[in-house]
Every structure is written in C-alpha cells, then in structure tokens.
C-alpha cells in the first residue's frame, strides 16, 4: 500500500476560450500537435507509453491501422431533449480543436483520420431535465472519431456516452463549457472482451463554470483513456471521478492531466478500481500542474485500488507540480490493497456467507462513485455489472 501526499501540485498554461493554447504535459516527450509526424512512433520505453502493451493497440500507435469501409467501424446515435442541436460537421468546422490539441500519437492519428465529427450543442441559459445520450456501438472494424459537446453560458446538462460492441477505436472528445455553465459527462466503456479503445477527453472550463466527469470502464481487451482539463478563465471547477473493474487479461489505463494555469480554480479527482484474475492490469496516472499564474488554486487527487485475486497488477502514479506558493491547497493519495479482513470477519460473524460478504465490501467500495452519476437507470445497470463481475470471480 502506498500513500503519497507531496507538497506539490502540477499544472497549466494560460488559456482563453476559443483562443490559441499550448497545453504542456511534463511527462510527454513531444509538444501537443495536430500533426501525427510531430510524435515519434512509441517503442514502450517512453514515460507516457511504458505501461501500455503496444502490440495490443492493433496499429493505432504506428499508423498501420486503417479505418474500415463505411459501416464497418462504429455506429454513433444521439438521443437529445428538445432544444439541443445535434450536427455532423466536416473538418473545417471552427470548433474543432478549441479545447486543446492531441497530446500523443494515437490522439493525433485520430484527429487526422476522422471524416466527420459529431457536435452536440446546448444553447445558453438552457437547463436540461433529461440527459443527452450518445451511443457508440462497435461493429467489428477499425474507426477514428471526434465528438464535441458544447454548453452555452449558464446552461446545465448531463451527457452520457455509452460504448458497447466490438471495435478498434481511436477517438477524441472535446467539452466546451461556457461561462457559468454546468456540465456532467458519464463515459461508459462497456465493450465486448475483444475491443480496443484509445481516446483523449479534453475539457475547456469557462469562467465560474463547473465540469464533472465520471468515467466507468468495464469491458475491452485494452482501454487507454486520457482525460484532460484546462481552464479558460478564473473560477472554474472540475471534478473527475472514475470507476474501473479490471478482469482476467484486461489492460485498463487512465492517464489524467489537470492544467491549472488560471487563478482561483478548483479540481478534485477520485478514481477507484477493483482487479481480479491472472494478468489483469490497471494503470492510473494523475498529473496535476499548478503554474506560476494560478494563485488561489485548490486541488486534490485520490486513487484507490482493491485487488481481489492473485495475478493482478496495479500501477498508480499521482504527480503534483507546483510553481507558486500562493495556493489554497494541493495534495494527493494512492492506495492499493486486498480485502480488509476485519470487514469480512465482521460481516461473516453476523451470519453472512463469505461470497455475499465480499460482494457487500466491493459494493461499498464503489458506492460513493456510482452515486455521482445521478441517473437511476444507469446506476442500476452499473451495480448489476459489478455484481456480475463478482459472481464470475466466485464461479
């Protein structure tokens, strides 16, 4: 078990909504860019790739993956409440790239390879009472995608992006959150066991705006997600939550960057994972950058992992970099361990069978994050998925 709480916080670069930006990641070997040629083909020795089994990316990292013919990659469907605009746009649309540039070769490959982007726009001062639901269903092929979610000033919305089926997918998602707006996004990776999914999610948070991300990862052979947050003006808040259940042979990797380059912004990160089975591998990287201009920053990040069986591996690396002492607070923690024997003993001493006791402990471990979703039918589905995973471990 490791618990690291340094006097450090990492972050940012000065950013304006709609303006040019140069996001910096202290642990990448190349600058952010739309051009694939600016990123060398990774070999696994680079800091940002050292945990990723490159051979399982199926060519997404080296340019050998080619998009399938029409209808052979993924099918995207959007269900939106009245008042929401849903568009399919070409590469010339001015909103593309506003949140930030790709920060690794796979993200750059996705940006240069997609043909059409999907844009969901919520008008200013609109408060949605139902979520926008985006279904991304894999149909067995290779696909490159780009999604933009744009929330106008003082609007409020919940967006669910649900990934299912089988595909080899590289896709970028941009969230543009206007001044005073509130956006909650739930991204579910419930892929079939053979799917591969790599993606960069970048949120640009406006003045006094709030962004909440909940990433849930269950399925897939390999899932590698890169959530990023940048701030366009003071007063922005970001909450990043994650839940993953890594099973036999799966590789699930979540690499977060929060770039505090703007004064008086806040961020909070909490990711939890459970692992079971031989060669189950979970990777969590949490980079928080607090730049010299970001006085008044308040940030904290947490990663906890519960190892259910022998043969599973966790790599958890929280990082804080601070360039100013004028902050409210900054900290991080990481912990990995097995079942708490005292909890199991307490439950079993009250007549609860061991399998049921284990199930209750895991449900309690994840309960706080599931409740962050706020959509009853989706919460019930995810609880059922956790139950199914636990039953498989007992069988």
TrEMBL record:
Residues 138-365 form the SUF system FeS cluster assembly SufBD core domain. InterPro entries: Fe-S_cluster_assembly_SufBD (IPR055346), SUF_FeS_clus_asmbl_SufBD_core (IPR000825), SUF_FeS_clus_asmbl_SufBD_sf (IPR037284), SUF_FeS_clus_asmbl_SufD (IPR011542). It comes from the Bacteria. Residues 1-40 are annotated as: Disordered. Residues 1-13 have a biased composition (Polar residues). PANTHER family: PROTEIN ABCI7, CHLOROPLASTIC (PTHR43575). Belongs to the iron-sulfur cluster assembly SufBD family. This is Fe-S cluster assembly protein SufD. The lineage of its organism: Bacteria, Bacillati, Actinomycetota, Actinomycetes, Kitasatosporales.
């Amino acid at each position: 078990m490791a618990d690291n709480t340094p006097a450090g916080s990492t972050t940012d670069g000065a950013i304006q909504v709609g303006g040019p930006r140069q996001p910096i990641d202290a642990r990448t070997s190349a600058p952010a860019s739309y051009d694939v040629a600016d990123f060398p083909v990774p070999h696994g020795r680079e800091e940002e790739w050292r945990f990723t089994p490159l051979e399982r990316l199926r060519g997404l990292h080296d340019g050998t993956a080619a998009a399938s013919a029409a209808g052979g990659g993924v099918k995207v469907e959007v269900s939106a409440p009245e008042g929401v605009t849903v568009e399919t746009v070409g590469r010339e649309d001015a909103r593309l790239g506003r949140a930030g540039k790709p920060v690794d070769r796979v993200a750059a490959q996705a940006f240069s390879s997609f043909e059409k982007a999907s844009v969901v726009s919520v008008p200013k001062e609109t408060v949605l009472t139902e979520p926008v639901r985006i279904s991304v269903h894999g149909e067995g092929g290779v696909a490159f995608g780009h999604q933009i979610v744009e929330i106008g000033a003082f609007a409020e919305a919940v967006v669910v992006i649900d990934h299912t089926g089988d595909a080899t997918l590289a896709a970028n998602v941009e969230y543009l959150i206007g001044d005073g707006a509130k956006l909650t996004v739930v991204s579910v990776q419930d892929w079939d066991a053979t799917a591969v999914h790599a993606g960069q999610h970048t949120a640009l948070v406006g003045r006094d705006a709030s962004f909440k991300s909940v990433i849930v990862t269950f399925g897939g052979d390999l899932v590698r997600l890169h959530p990023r947050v940048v701030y366009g003006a003071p007063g922005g808040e970001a909450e990043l939550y994650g839940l993953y259940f890594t099973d036999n042979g799966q590789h699930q990797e979540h690499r977060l960057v929060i770039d505090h380059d703007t004064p008086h912004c806040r961020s909070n990160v909490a990711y939890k994972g459970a692992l079971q089975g031989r060669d189950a591998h979970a990777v969590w990287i949490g980079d928080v950058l607090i730049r010299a201009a970001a006085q008044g920053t308040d940030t904290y990040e947490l990663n906890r992992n519960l190892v259910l069986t022998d043969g599973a591996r966790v790599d958890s690396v929280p990082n804080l970099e601070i360039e100013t002492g004028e902050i409210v607070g900054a900290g991080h923690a990481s912990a990995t361990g097995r079942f708490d024997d005292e909890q199991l003993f307490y439950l079993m001493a009250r007549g609860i069978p061991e399998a049921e006791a284990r199930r209750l402990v895991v449900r309690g471990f994840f309960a706080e994050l599931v409740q962050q979703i706020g959509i009853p039918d989706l919460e019930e589905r995810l609880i059922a998925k956790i139950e199914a995973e636990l039953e498989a471990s007992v069988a």
